[in-house]
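Archive maintenance. Older records in this collection stored only the sequence; we are now back-filling the structure field for every entry so that each record is complete. The fields below show one back-filled record exactly as it appears after the update. Entries are processed alphabetically, and Thymidylate kinase is next in the queue.

ARCHIVE ENTRY
Title: Thymidylate kinase
Organism field: Natronospira proteinivora
Length field: 221
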Amino acid sequence: MNETTKQTPPGRFITVEGGEGVGKSSNMDFIADYLRKQDITVCRTREPGGTPFAEAVRELLVKRDAAPLTDKAELLLIFAARDSHLQDVILPALSRGEWVLCDRFTDATYAYQGQGRKLGEAAVAWLEQWIQGERRPDLTLLLDAPVSIGLERADKRGERDRFEQETVQFFQTIRETYLERAEAEPERFRRIDASQSLNQVQSQIQTELAQWIRQLPEALS
Ligand SMILES: Nc1ncnc2c1ncn2[C@@H]1O[C@H](COP(=O)(O)OP(=O)(O)OP(=O)(O)O)[C@@H](O)[C@H]1O
Ligand SMILES: Cc1cn([C@H]2C[C@H](O)[C@@H](COP(=O)(O)O)O2)c(=O)[nH]c1=O
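Back-filled structure field:
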């Protein structure tokens, strides 16, 4: 294919996952900067959130003094927010050839609502298929650390939000679910040892990202 007919490479969808306080937000800027240095246009976003509607839903779900709601309502609100986010932000960015970098996505729903709230994998899988069709992240960086480390860091950051008030057993389930999902899909997940210092975490993230980018078809051509 010559220069004039060369197609724009497709956008890629990268998610960052992990339990409370492991350092997802702290590493989002680092990842976005690294990608931009590779001349990639990055759309940085988060869940729940990313659109005015989804950010309003986030308030209902995450705020410490949020009104009580049932577990099923929580799951449905998360997918309502995800539909808005996908249709208005994620899919348009990907179709422009941008890379979407999202702080949490549906792996969080499998962990928190599917297993943490015990609503089951099947309910999440059904909603995932309905709302997302075949769309899944291309790469998921799983920041993994013992629950005690994550909660200690979250506590140093400030008051616990609605989810952070759950029990240690709840967070243990979240961690185990993420690890099981990473083991089941090794081609998509990269596990990062988030118990290390921030510099070490970022060095591991950079190595994984560089390796992943090198094996993309457009990098090989
Ligand atoms: N590797 C690290 N070592 C020590 N402290 C860290 C590390 N990474 C992040 N922190 C600190 O831990 C706290 C939690 O980090 P951060 O908010 O990035 O986590 P998070 O995974 O986004 O949390 P949450 O899911 O609860 O929003 C922050 O105060 C941050 O500065
Ligand atoms: C996407 C998603 C998120 N959650 C929970 C997990 C966290 O406690 C909050 C988001 O807060 P953070 O500061 O951005 O970590 O929402 C969830 O339960 N299910 C989900 O699908």
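Update note: The beta strands are 13-17, 42-46, 99-103, 139-144, 189-193. Residues 48 and 78 are 7 Å apart (CA to CA).
Entry marked complete.
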